[in-house]
Amino acid sequence: MQFLYRTPGYILLLFGGFCLSWGGFIIRSFEEASIWQILLLRSFFFMIALIGFLTATYKKNTISIFKDAGFPAVLGGLVMSLSFIAFVVAMTNTTVANVVFIISTQTMFLAIFGYFYLKEKVSLVSFISILLAMSGITVMMGESLSSGSFFGNLVALAIPINFSILVMIIRKNKNLDMIPAIFYSGIFSVIYGLILSESFVFTGHDILMGFFLGVPQLAFGFICITIGSRSTPSSTIGLLMLSETICAPIWVLLFLNEIPPASTLIGGFIIILAIIIKSFDKKIKSLK
Q1: pLDDT tens for each residue of 19-67
Q2: Helix axis angle, 35-58 relative to 62-91, nearest 10°?
C-alpha cells in the first residue's frame, strides 16, 4: 500500500471523489435493507477494508499508531460516525444531487467554525463564498418544503457540519493521524447498526451492495482523500473534490433516471460557484 503515498495528491483526490460519488447510486440499489441495515453492512465492510489497509501499511506499528492517536482520534471517530448516519438517512429522504451539493459546502463551514473556534479571520473572499453557499442551500431548502424532501436536506447539512467539527479537532491536535479516527468511526457505526437494525437477515444482493458501499465507495474514497490531502494545496482540494459533486447526480440520472428539480440545479450551481470563488482565497493570500 506504500505506492499510494508515492502517487500525486491530485490524482488520489480525483479518484477518491470518484469513489465517493457512487454512494447515492449504490444506496438506491438495495433491495430490502432498511436504513440501519444499510449502515451496518456498509460499516462492517468498511472496517474490514481499513483493517487490511492498516495491517498492510503500518504492519507491526499498527497498534502503536492507535495508542499515539489517543482520545482525540476516538472523539474524531465519533463525530465522523454521525456523518455516516446522516449520509445514509439523507440519501433515502432526498435526491442524490441535493445531498452532494450540500456536502460540498464543507469548505464554507470550515471558515465559519475556524472563526468561532480558532479565532481565524474570515477574508472578504471567504465571506462572499459563504453567503453564496448559504444562498444555494436556501434555494434548495425552499423547494424541499413543498416536495417533502426538507427532512433529507436538513439531515444532509449535518455532514459538512460534522466534518468541520472533525477538522477543528485535528487542528487542535496537529499530531492526530486521521486513519485511526476513520477506523473508530467504523466501529461506532457498526454499533449503531447492531443496536438499531430490525433484523440481521440480508439478501445476497444487499450484502453485495453493502460490500460495494463499504469498500470501493467509502474505504477507497476516504483513504485516497486522506493521503492525497497531505501533498495537495488546500486551495486546490475543494476544486478536486467537486468530482464527487458533479459525478454523483450523473450516475443516478444515467442508471436510475433520477432527475433533480430545477431548484436543486440552481442551488447546486450557486454552491459550486461559491467553492470556485473560495479556492481563490489562499491564492490571493499567497500573493500578498
Answers
A1: 999 999 999 999 999 999 999 999 999 999 999 988 888 888 888 888 8
A2: 150
pTM (two decimals): 0.90
Does 4 map to a domain?
Answer: no
Q: Could you give the angle at which helices 262-287 and 106-117 cross, rounded to 10 degrees?
A: 50
User: By residue range, what is the domain housing residue 34?
Assistant: 9-282
Give SS3 for 93.
coil
Chain position carrying cell 435493507: 33
Provide the 8-state DSSP code for 104: T
- How many whole angstroms separate alpha carbon 132 and alpha carbon 113? 17
Beta carbons within 10 angstroms of residue 114's beta carbon? 18
How many alpha carbons lie under 13 Å from residue 127 in its C-beta half-sphere? Answer: 6
Among candidate residues 56, 72, 37, the one with its CA nearest the CA of residue 203: 37
Assigned domain for 262 exists: yes
Specify whether the CB–CB gap between 177 and 223 falls below 8 A.
no
Contact assessment for residue 153 and residue 94, using Cβ atoms and an 8 Å cutoff: yes
In a domain, 1, yes or no: no
Provide the terminal-to-terminal Cα distance of the chain, rounded to the nearest Å: 39
Domain count, the chain: 1
Sign of the CA dihedral with 239 first, then 245, 248, and 253 last: negative
Q: Please, is 285 exposed, middle or buried when counting C-beta atoms within 10 Å of its C-beta (0-12, 13-18, 19+)?
A: exposed
The number of residues making up the chain comes to 288
Q: Is residue 2 part of a domain?
A: no
